[in-house]
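Quick start: read one record
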Amino acid sequence: MGVLHELIKTSYINYCSSTLAGVSGVLLQRLQSVLNAAAQLVFSARRSEHITPLLRELHWLKVPERIQIRLCVLTHRCLHGTAPPYLAETLQLTADVQGRRRLRSASTTTLVVPPTRRATIGDRAFPASASRAWNSLPTTVREIQSLPAFRRKLKTALFAISFPAD
């Protein structure tokens, strides 16, 4: 019952995790501790064992990267017409901005990050958080058209951020 319960909790973390963009570090640490506990249960590890090798072996991303992967997949869907229109219309490619057509940024796949007034609310809104997450991706990942290929490359890129090579 304990292992199953912890694994169910991890699926709750994944579900709608894009709404967690910009939450406090304290909340991220609490969510990470749930993932850590699930990994310990899967391996029957003691609490004193280091968790990083277990997470790496399970190929589980850390919580901030899980949030970013959900945001980026939803952004990819918005840009390719498979997301709800009310979300897609909130994002704008830099190339589509009238005054930037002659700039180098016009040839990139970056998004315009809308200005926000409040860090607590505005920065957590989908257009701002999705644009920041998208723009932080390597160009080679952003330019992938196929959603399954995008997901694979994205997870590989974020896994390298979560667990840098020693």
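The CA atoms of residues 22 and 124 lie 5 Å apart.
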